[in-house]
Amino acid sequence: MRIVFKTDYMQDIRPWKDGYQLSLYLLLLAVAIAAPWWLDDFYLGELTNVLIWAIAGLGLMVLTGHTGQASLGHAAFLAIGCYANIILVEAGVPFMIAFPVAGLITGIIGATVAVPALRLHGIYLAIFTLAMSILMDDIIVLAEPITGGVAGKYAPPVGVFGFMVDRWGTPNEFYWLTLGVVVLVTLGYINLLRAPLGRSFIAVRDSEVSAQAMGVDISRTKTISFGLSCMVTGWAGALMGLYAGAFNNETFSVVISIQLLMMIVIGGLGSIHGAFFGAIVIGFLPQFLSISKEYVGAVFGGSTVAIPGLEFGIFGMILIAFILFEPMGIYGRWLKIRTWFELFPFYRKDMFKRQKSYLKTERLR
């Protein structure tokens, strides 16, 4: 049994539980920094893709996981961030200025769009955001002089502190750029949850009526949450455009929005770790399926022709399995395993018993 004895109130709000947990995070960061030396270019590119998906997952986690507002339209904000970044770079703005500005533009647009959706809840908000994602496809095509329309745009190499960074020409530098953004966004997210604003997000998620009774401005909190979520998602979209190299209106389809929502549900709603676990599943599952088909074909002598819809079918089955058997996601399962070892032999299943009914205060809505 491993028990952490707290002797100071600051221990309850610091980013890590104890020195042991901090050392594990630092070790993980050191391994991630050294990845270009022990991975080839292919797997380094896949790891970079996972990190970009993790940033997008963190953006959606702010809105859905910690504020409780479902969204099926975050692909639209990925597109806004991607196009805003490239357009600014093409206009001669340095990348180190264009990148954060692209996120700010996306956040402002997201907060503006959130205003008419403030009174929507649950499935109605999801339908509203889904319609917005579908509409973005037409907007990109109609704004052809700016966005390139169906022909799309190409992402040029960008300058970072005097170094030219390109997805294909300098994969190591592009990976470190993505890793740096991941670290900064994660640290910002951790500190947001420790702040009064982050606690307001969680209060709104748990019960809007109770949060309002405690003095939380519901409309303001939802608007800020939507804006922050879209800002982080815009940064992920900017990196996604640089990673793809070429993109058009079909790159950020509504399927991406659905994958994002599936990702944070599978990873674990309401936890920063869940965004990373979900990104690993989304990023590596297609490659795993491809390798598995080749292996099965080599062993049994069958064909390795691609099966239409296989990838999304597997995603769907995984999602259904988690909803039925582990609603807390991968991180929730890991949390139970870790707690079992920490509290053995005093662990009880009822510690993680699901609440099967709504709060009484929510029935007043």
UniProtKB/TrEMBL annotation:
Main location: membrane
Coiled-coil residue spans: none
Compartment list: Cell membrane
Pfam families hit by this protein: BPD_transp_2
Molecular functions per Gene Ontology: branched-chain amino acid transmembrane transporter activity
Record's GO cellular component terms: plasma membrane
Residue spans crossing the bilayer: 20-38, 44-63, 70-89, 95-115, 122-143, 174-192, 224-246, 252-285, 297-325
Membrane topology: Multi-pass membrane protein
Keyword set, alphabetical order: Cell membrane, Membrane, Transmembrane, Transmembrane helix
Alphabetized InterPro entries for the sequence: ABC_transp_permease, LivM-like
Highest taxon in the source lineage: Bacteria
Entry protein name: High-affinity branched-chain amino acid transport system permease protein LivH
Annotated source species: Falsiruegeria mediterranea M17
